[in-house]
Amino acid sequence: MLDLCSVHLFQRNIAQTLVAPLLLTLCCFFVLPTSTAWPIPAPKGVKIGSRGRFHPRLYLNFGYDSNIYNRSNQSDIRDGSRLGNIDGAPLLSIRPGLELDIPTKSVEFYLGGFANYTHFFPQIPNPIINTITASADLSLRFLPRSPFSILIYNNFSRNTGDNVSAQDVFARTLFYYAPGTQTGAVYITHNNSAGITFTIKPGGGALTFDVGYRFAFGFYPNENLDFNSHNFAFNIRWNFFPRTAFTFDSSFVIKNYAPRFSSREGTNVDAMPLKAYVGIAGQLTNRILLRARVGGGYTFSADRSAEGLPNDNWGMVVGNIDFTYKFRLTTFIRLGFRHDFNPSQFSNFYNETSGYIEFQTQFGSTRPVVLGIKGNGGYLGYGKIPVNINVGGGTGNVRFNSRNINDDNTINRGDLFVRGDLNLDWYVYPFWMIGINANIDYRNSNTFVVLSNNNQIGFGYIKFQVLLKTELAY
Q1: What does the pLDDT look like over 326-346, one tens digit per residue?
Q2: DSSP reduced 3-state for 330
Q3: Cα dihedral 331, 467, 336, 38 sign
Q4: Are 39 and 440 in contact (CB under 8 A)?
Q5: 216-240, pLDDT tens digit by residue?
Q6: Which of 175, 307, 309, 457 measures 20 to 30 Å from 42, CA to CA?
Q7: How many beta carbons lie within 10 A of that of residue 463, not counting itself?
């Protein structure tokens, strides 16, 4: 009997596939010289020392999820079971958190984290979907104002495969925080990332060098999908004009799939993607900001073939472009496009071609109302995978079906995705926000997993959520 949870553990987690690359693009890659954030009230916090602040936070939301299991209406269920049912349900989320920020001339210390409990009220009894997730950040930056500084950090996440930070969730850089759910099933993974970055600014600081190393790992319920990775980065930024910079970004990753750091091989093929980009970032006028880069990448797969996966290498031109127009200080529109590839837990890699649009504006200043609209969409193409594959861990062979099966009995999975998000937040007081969130998530896939009795579960789905929310952040 095939375990549905293990099958979807083998699928690349949606949070990693869609949210994480976009998040890295918005928060790390497209860092522009001038901020486009609107001046919402900053929490005062409890003063610690001369400059330190402690910020307690509490977030609540109540709403409705139209497809709590992210199931597909393309599924073919032949035994009368509920595997193909699309169930909607009300939900309640409670997320207490904290931030501690202590900056000094010699060391900048940051600690942040939260725990999130989401309770669904479904028509059918299934308590496993009521989950506790969490995230925690810790960072130390030594000599922040000197020509040579060092950043040491650690990020932990307990969720469905994502590796976003607590600070990302607090700052609402995610489209929305979706704890504990995955296509067709529910499971929890534990992910951790620890790293060090050396920043060198010789002379007057017009030239910046960043050299970094990060070690990451993830533990899954099916340990054959566990991974660990060594991530190296070397970046250069040259501010040849006060508001315009030339950039060079490069990365090399050694990704290993091994259960609990053992010598036993995991389900997936190890990979070593190498990427390098050149680009430009700057504020071209008082209203126009542009960031663009182009480069190339290549994945060196391991010499072995894990559990029948093809030993594919993959190379392509990669790049990003990000255009922002500021109508006024508190109103802007941003357009972006990306073409990239990454290692995947479904086949050896996936490539992404996608674009996004974001509009944000603020009404009022004393008790401001902030309106934000975001959308992104594109195509995900996965590497070749056999129709039958062994995922290990006692699960046995997993069978796949597709509308496009190659002559050698393999599948090239392709997914189309569209996501939209609408936020309306009213800051009643600097420490109290109430708001409304509505989002839609659509995914169409040409691939299905075949279960017992020839049931076929599709990887595509559509869902929407509507939430009433409030946050206390002092």
Answers
A1: 999 889 999 999 999 888 877
A2: coil
A3: positive
A4: no
A5: 999 988 887 889 999 999 999 999 8
A6: 175
A7: 20
